[in-house]
Amino acid sequence: MESLRVVVYLSVFLSVMTSVCRGERSTENQLPSASDVPAFGLELAEALQGLLDEADSRVGLSVEKKASVIPRCDVGERCAMKHGPRIGRLCDCLRGTACNTFFLRCY
């Protein structure tokens, strides 16, 4: 019974405090409305779109180049690079030759 009385008093107290505090809202703590925001956001969006379009055109070329077929190497040309314990291929050796993993050249 006593816990019910505490709950009722607490709810009455909170509702009174809420109604009192609503009348004391200050304009400093409110967010600006859409009419108060300058057109800076639109200018920023247009500038970012221009940068993305420019970057898209540059990235497209490199992606196309990477997706193409690996070029062919002549005999004696460097066909691979060593990156630590790994060997990265630069080109494919011609038919009848192979990339020597010690010299990293087509023989």
Automatic annotation (TrEMBL):
Residues making up the signal peptide according to the UniProt record: 1-23
Keyword tags: Disulfide bond, Secreted, Signal
Similarity comment: family membership: Belongs to the CART family.
Gene Ontology molecular-function annotations: neuropeptide hormone activity
Pfam families for this protein: CART
Single biological process term from Gene Ontology: adult feeding behavior
Intracellular or extracellular location(s): Secreted
Keyword Cytoplasm: no
Protein name listed in UniProt: Cocaine- and amphetamine-regulated transcript 4
GO cellular component: extracellular space
InterPro entries to which the protein is assigned, alphabetical: CART, CART_C_sf
